Structures
1.
Amino acid sequence: MAKGQVAQVSVSKDWIDFGIGQPQLDNLPLEQLEAGANHRFERKDRSILAYGIEKGNGQFRIALADFLGLQYGNAVDPDQLFITGGVSQALDMICALKTRPGDTVIVEEPSYFLALRIFADYKLKVIGTPIDANGIIIDELEKRLKKHKPAFVYTIPVFHNPAGVTQSPKRRNKLTHLSEKYDFLIVADEVYQLLNYNSVPPPPMAYCDDSRRVLSLGSFSKILAPGLKLGWMQAKPNQLSPFTSCGYLESGGGLNPFVSGIVSSVIELGLQESYLKRLKKIYKDRMTTLSDALRQKIPALKFRDPSGGYFIWANLPDGADNELLLAEAKKHKVSYQPGIKFSSSKGLRDHLRLCFAYYRKQDLVKGVQRLARAIEMERP
Amino acid sequence: MAKGQVAQVSVSKDWIDFGIGQPQLDNLPLEQLEAGANHRFERKDRSILAYGIEKGNGQFRIALADFLGLQYGNAVDPDQLFITGGVSQALDMICALKTRPGDTVIVEEPSYFLALRIFADYKLKVIGTPIDANGIIIDELEKRLKKHKPAFVYTIPVFHNPAGVTQSPKRRNKLTHLSEKYDFLIVADEVYQLLNYNSVPPPPMAYCDDSRRVLSLGSFSKILAPGLKLGWMQAKPNQLSPFTSCGYLESGGGLNPFVSGIVSSVIELGLQESYLKRLKKIYKDRMTTLSDALRQKIPALKFRDPSGGYFIWANLPDGADNELLLAEAKKHKVSYQPGIKFSSSKGLRDHLRLCFAYYRKQDLVKGVQRLARAIEMERP
């Protein structure tokens, strides 16, 4: 790590690393945050500097509910919002307060690889359940529920990371119905909910029938900036209370009241909405560029076109070896996330995850050309 | 909770609640944060909005090390700093990564009551060990170490909350020596370290001999603003690595890079130093006012004069009943924290904690007058 390094990733300039699942530095909304900060400071309201109320800055929860309500096309009750430090922080807190070492959690196969790392830190037993183009396969899940008693099912129901798929409304309702029947929590990671490029996906799982056991997790990391460490949990008030009354928050106060104050202003000034519009336009273009380039240059690679989020999840040509390919790709200064990382059972070796959010279009094309050459070299 | 409430506490205007252990709203440094934000935004450095490096914003760690080094009179190595979301967040993380349900932790009797709540959330077994005017009584601690195998000893070695005492250098070294002999971590909550009003206390416990097992926890909550959710852990790099490599941070990135950027500028502009000077002057005045008023109006109340921090820890007159007194006090619109809250064994019923940081001098005097009348009514 270089002394003074600020950001988590630092990529060599001449590399194309499709593995990076982050927004591009040049696009981060510094001007919007500056305008929000100025607006907030002008109010001379010192309460954003005090210990915050446990549920989260109340003015911010009202502004956030207004913004989300418009986006979802469904009203959001500020009393059903708890302000978090982002989805990772929320997952960490859920593990801390809702599990004990040795408990079982069920995850999708594939699932977000770093969530798996959090579950490992809490010594949870992870069981995978398969998904298809419409999300979790309900019968397969129920088979597992008959054998295991999970503390929760962790699902990414919208623009899945890595698979790109969105769970259908019908399956969502079946899932929440199962949560009643088998008494488990549904932890819905909906961090890509608002990054839809073609059509509006179903609203968060908190809006399903039988949603009493649903915790819907949202974040500003993908729609504004990850460095803010700001997100939310939407759930019934009785589900929120174990979080808002825990020792950590009683001692330290609610999460990020100062940043919440600034982001309240970003929302009130309409800057969140306009920035999100701009992001969606950029990402839609990049998504199309990447999928077109892949189809043209590496026709052997199979994938579904995503319609939101950050990722394309592709199948390697028959017989290609992911491990050898990754080594070969790196010789061509291109990289990606290999499928095995997203598997709770060391499978998915024939898959790779490509992120289209981080790079400009010309770099995406350049990366695909390099990957094509690497695959050509590795073809059996 | 009122809709839109931002701050954690909301006190009726005509009450004096000595129980509030928080900075006063009117004194919170909004202008300093505004100047820091402007300075940071002018640099056009978007990296403060990206996922932060796990150890914490590197520019900030350098600025913080410079500031702390001057304050401690001891050099601080930025590589021995890990940026946290404050002491409560650090305690939460230590419990998550360093304990399992049923593990033992040893705390001082009395100890910070909300740390006890965090330990309860992690289902830890809490053993109290007595302190005196010089902090932990080492022989008493060793007796307990012979019977129990704690994951850590939680100590507040400087301007203790609630007891006000500071652990002597000799005892600090004995404590770290025991940590080697019995193999436990020392979690040193040093949140009041820089709020010294008469003389400079010993440097953080990370500077002791045999400090390989010491985690020194600091925070901006008491020297700048709690709403920032920003603090640090100082320890040997091998002690920091379980934290900086955990799943939560690998997924979410380092803590609060955006706020860290702004506070870097607050430090660089000299505003942290000047604000701390101002705070120390204000608090010293208030401390003297409260102790003088107590001595004058309630001579039966016994206490040691603190020389830093936020609190006076007082003994009730013989025979007074804390529970009855608190009820009586509330009739007089005055309150405090009863001793039992700070006890891991439901003792300390004859003590009360009075905070002198939150109220202006005239209110402190008014509060003491009310408390005197309440004690007068309750005198047996």
Note: Chain B has two domains: 16-29+273-378, 30-271.
2.
Amino acid sequence: MNKGFVLWFTGLSGSGKSTIADRVKEELLKKNIPIEQLDGDEVREHLTRDLGFSKEDRDENIRRIAFVAKLLSRNKVGIIASFISPYEDIRKEVRDSVTNFIEIYVNAPLEVCEARDVKGLYKKARAGEIKNFTGISDPYEEPKNPEIELKTDKSSIEECVKQVIHYLKEVYQLDL
Amino acid sequence: MNKGFVLWFTGLSGSGKSTIADRVKEELLKKNIPIEQLDGDEVREHLTRDLGFSKEDRDENIRRIAFVAKLLSRNKVGIIASFISPYEDIRKEVRDSVTNFIEIYVNAPLEVCEARDVKGLYKKARAGEIKNFTGISDPYEEPKNPEIELKTDKSSIEECVKQVIHYLKEVYQLDL
């Protein structure tokens, strides 16, 4: 029997959240685990297009996602969510509202994320063209006790994926 | 094996949508069908508290609900949703985006709904204290081909509930 859960990837822009989340999803789908992925673009289009990047708007953004994740996870669906989600208090709210919250801190130093700068966002943030940019002009509150910590400056993507799958299998005892 | 579906109750304020929806939910839970109910208060609190009653806001309201209903229904959860949802085009959008949309037109004449006026809203709408009130100052576009039509001025609540359950069993072939 399936168990619902929420894999919550949090970390700076460029830390590797989405890349790892996509690969974890692939692995779980191979094992016929029912999965829904909640990521930036789809959520923004359908749920939160009215919201900006102030703390208030970021919190409301995460709250709407938490509501969806709550309904799905209690119906035995596995959720893969990747959002910067920089604030500890709101991550705590998600943890308290969903079934089986598994916090995954995708940890890479700011310098590394900024050097990668895949989408050119850090450059724009440094130039002041983007405001409220996490790590530059907005805080990122590190998870204190994440279920999983992935150090993407030291481990390869595949190693990180294995670490997540290992957790689901051994600690969470998902039938993989 | 469960099938996902969306029971979408549409109709005027006071038509009996929520009362029937609540009772249908009870009956399905008795049969261990996985059900999530999406109704006004919970959705407004968690998903749409920024929205008002203009056509644009009503449409955005229904679109967010449709997104949630899509994710749940394709994961074999039965959804019970009751919203006035007065516009044909947006109900069509919901139909096209979710798995197994079952439109239930809760049909009672405006005079009957207004005479019931359980929450005193019609009185306020007539006095101009509430604007954009469906049936009074805003249109209600009747469903043209609903899967189920319930005439709550002619049938009792329990008869309506039976009609919905009968549909799910005989037409939709849910294992009840």
Note: Strands of chain A lie at 5-10, 35-38, 78-82, 101-107, 148-151.
3.
Amino acid sequence: MSDSSQDWLPKVDLDSEAVIEEDYSLAPELVETVREMLEEERIDSVQQVLEPLHVADVADLLEYLTKDELQLVIKGLWSFIDSEVLTYLDAAVREEVIDLLGPRQLARAVSELDSDDAVEVFEDLDEEAQHRILSRLPQAYRTLLEESLTYPEDSAGRLMQREMVVIPSAWSVGETIDHMRESDDLPDDFYDLFIVNPKHKPIGFVPLSRVLRTKRPVRLTEIMDTELKLIPLTMNEEDVAYTFRQYGLVSAPVVDEVGRLVGVITIDDVVRVIDEVAEEDLMKLGGLGESDLYNDFLETVRARSPWLVVNLGTAILASLVIGLFEGTIEKVVALAVLMPIVASMGGNAGTQTLTVAVRALAMKDLSSANAWRFINKELVVGVFNGVLFAVITGALAWYWFGRPEIGLVIGAAMVVNLIVAGLGGTLIPIGLDRVGVDPAIASTVFLTTVTDVIGFFAFLGLAAAFLM
Amino acid sequence: MSDSSQDWLPKVDLDSEAVIEEDYSLAPELVETVREMLEEERIDSVQQVLEPLHVADVADLLEYLTKDELQLVIKGLWSFIDSEVLTYLDAAVREEVIDLLGPRQLARAVSELDSDDAVEVFEDLDEEAQHRILSRLPQAYRTLLEESLTYPEDSAGRLMQREMVVIPSAWSVGETIDHMRESDDLPDDFYDLFIVNPKHKPIGFVPLSRVLRTKRPVRLTEIMDTELKLIPLTMNEEDVAYTFRQYGLVSAPVVDEVGRLVGVITIDDVVRVIDEVAEEDLMKLGGLGESDLYNDFLETVRARSPWLVVNLGTAILASLVIGLFEGTIEKVVALAVLMPIVASMGGNAGTQTLTVAVRALAMKDLSSANAWRFINKELVVGVFNGVLFAVITGALAWYWFGRPEIGLVIGAAMVVNLIVAGLGGTLIPIGLDRVGVDPAIASTVFLTTVTDVIGFFAFLGLAAAFLM
């Protein structure tokens, strides 16, 4: 973007320079400025910086600070910061902030949040801390939160907000508008009105835009959409995200076991879930539990080493396979030079297939209705790539070591391993999913173990059989 | 979920069994049923199955079909299918459907779509096909689409819809509601009203829920929120997604170079972008360009082989390094057995760090404000893990081959490679991002090349120096 276009872009009125970039990310200079101010203990200046910022940007700023800097800001300026900042913070940083706040301050902050946001903050606390905060809250709100916390983690019950607009089926557009003009305990933002029958079961919804377009005497039941996508309280949040995405929803009614309306889930919470789930899958495929960007050294090591231990195990397994052929390698040392190629190609081809499969399973694009077609395609791709790379690698090995039989052996091993990679890349994630194990978390380890073991075994085994 | 809870869940009224699962995914049995019907050429029965389905579920069903089955459905039943299905289809399947439709049918379908959806369909067509369709559209709509297509791909201009509700700054709540009740060219769904000044520049917005809560005589300018997050026409769609996510928006105004309101982006389009971007990053890290679940064999091979060729190149590079030490391996064959362990651990530890970095860069959580802190942490993690796994692996190698000096060599190589992994996992993606290359696409190849080459070189080099 050219410089001349900047003047029509939104600017925050912090008189000096822009603190929010053109793409709405936080200017690194702002973080530097705040850091300097904190070093010089000019806490009032920091307050002036924070004042015009959106709460989401304040959260970003806090995430950039070191523990000591964070402590200075929270201790000195918490009363000037919107409590909602807690919901915008990364979990690791939120925990730090919560530790810095006393129970009194935290209780007040929680009481200012919508119920769904409050539950999110509560989830991270241990039971004792939860209890300490709950005991300081007004009784009605306390009961509400306690109830929310009884729902399973990552369920619709935790995600929903209890504040909602419920319209009896007899009301007209006019009555509804009048009710809303007089009522003062409505949620901050809502996008649909849910119509319930006398048993409090949702029977339809009307988007607000339709309410505004309709004349006063018309009954809501006449303009409502009855194709409701009900969300059961116990539905998994990934399935909630799927439902919103599939049907383009902006809000959806949550119902209890007997079908009564108990809450509403809105798109903002769902976007958060979509982000979290995508991040989790990415991290699991990368061999981590979750992103640890904001975790300190110790937490990071503690979270990552178990995965490395598992990898060490599979690497040792591969070494054991190689160990079976020590005698062969001793005689034809070219085998040691070439053997990583077969294993590496298998691992990469398999990872390609695996990645497609894991994502498709997560997005419900891969099911028993098309699994065999997918497996079949990947098998054919494996055969084709196997032959293709067998020819290339075989020719290369022949040229390199001047022995055509080494080319033949590596070519044959390549075909075997790329077919195994195609099958492993499909069958492993589909199989794990079928038995209820998250395919993102365990597939990679299984797959690379298979392609390493088979890769080394096929190459060295064929060499032992035909070159000796 | 127990069986007894099913009766309060939504059911589609296709008299026999449920066709949509509890989690709103398509029942595999439904796909089977449709398949059988198609085989028996009972196209009317298929129509009855499609009839009650939401258009998103119809799209899923079409995605599950083979090319021949798809042809039967499109040729026979297109007139019964909502044109909007085009926007729900995966790009590969959409292309097939478009090929099956003639220009006349496609033109009619496009003319029924909102402008943003129409642009999405158009993007996939070649210029000649675009022209053929455009010439059949009404002039006004044609001009609108042609203009949208002049904006860069993946920009806000392509994402926005041109249909919107614009309110002059003088209007009251009552006037606004009256206007909407009489107007019949409003978009299907909208969530905010944008207030413009006489120059057509947005000066604020009012969420519909606030309009409904406010009494008729109140001016919109009195209740509007002036903290507008303006989206420039040329803003990248990833930045648009960031802006929505950051500020919890459900819709945002798009402005041209002089700041005039030209369109609106709504949350449903942003959710699609979030999904696409997350999927792309996942695929790139897995060594693919994009998901090819629905692509046929040839397309799949064509898209994946280049990545495998690159991988073959890096594998050969690693082999060349091993080749330097043929003499050493010939004398101590245990080295060939153990050498994959060092490379594999480096690759995995590096991938962990890399995954965190790539995701954090994509989410704008990693910037120059905290890059050094992150690099520093990963360096310390690398040193720690290096020492930890050096001890484990060293002891193991000693025990296995009965030679303590082999344990020392593998331990030292492990420390070196895990430090390199930590540095590579941070510096490579941050560096690529700094020079404007997508870190997701190229980081993995760079990193594994580095950890393989350094892994083999450190291990075999140290062995050559100290064991000979």
Note: Confidence is low (pLDDT under 50) at residues 1-17 of chain B.
